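Researcher: I'd like a structural prediction for the single chain below. Treat it as a standalone chain; there are no partners to consider.
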Amino acid sequence: MDLYNRIAKLRYIPALIVGFVAAIPGNLLSKVLHSSSKVFLVGENGGHGFQDNGKYVFEELIKEKAGQTYWMTSEMHDYIVLNRQCRIGSVRGYYYYFRSVAVFYTHSLSTDIAPLANRVTLFSPLHVEISHGVEGFKRKIKTTQVTNFPADLYTCSNSFEKSIKHHEWNISNSKLLLTGVARYDGLVASPKQKKSSLQILYMPTWREWDYEDDYEQFKNSKTFQAIRQVCTSSDLEAVLVKTHSNLVVRLHPFFQKYFSQFDLAEFQPHVSLSDADVSQLIHQSDMLVTDYSSVAWDFLYSLKPVAFYQFDRIRYLQERGSYLSMPDDLFGPSTTDFNQFSGIVDEMISTPNMEILKAERKKHFDFVDTNNSSRIVSMTLSRLR
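Model: Treating it as a single chain, here is the predicted structure.
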């Protein structure tokens, strides 16, 4: 099922029509009886996984007993009650979409909830985009700008992001909800345990100019060479040994298909490549090295040190751009030069400044609590009354 291919989506038209027709009697009866029964749909990441903002909103809706709540997925999960799941693109999925009062998604309505449903305005529910990361490091790609199928409401992780979505994306303030990030409800600080070694997560983000490369093209790209250089660096290995640390490399999901192109035999002993869930790695890791990944905000929120290795900063700022001023707005040591890479990692490990981290977190986040999902749900419900 290719939810990102426009032509492939045409196969869902029959299911959409059947689901729409099946929903008509119930919708008309609800209007006649003034029924207060509510249906909610939640999805994320094209129907894959159950760990991002959608998961926390889904669980909050169930906790609040807001109504019938269903998880939209492309793969049925044994850890979610079966009668609370719907396959994206199924007749049942479309039926519940046209019966719902509100739907929540991280990427788009079409990929996370119901393909092509945005073409039908009759019986259309409230659309709430809960995003999948904090805006700041990356400018919105022009082709994905909020234009053709805008949501009705957009959550904002902080005041800076709200300003971006209003002034840069031209979204009305009336559609912007200052709520915090739903999945941050799971970043509750646990008691510090003494560890024999530190785990450092290295998570470079994807570049759109590498996205359609075949294996050979990617192996010759600057991105691949830069990541490989990190994994095989003897200078970095010396820092990791000295500080009793391990570096875990996690590729962005868009790069996962190139996983096999890395020769693990040439990796240094304290460097490993992982395909574990990002949320799991965030919890397990003590520090982060990245370039422009929004995962950096998760670590800042958790008061875990971050270092930035931006080997292609000039090209990145020219071709993609950022809402931040780099490197001035970065909240950790940074470099574009690999010769300085091991040094900034050593600096991050040896001299973490908690006071600076706390000041940066206070500067960038309006809320530091476990009520983000609750705010999203309550603010949405208030628009339905």
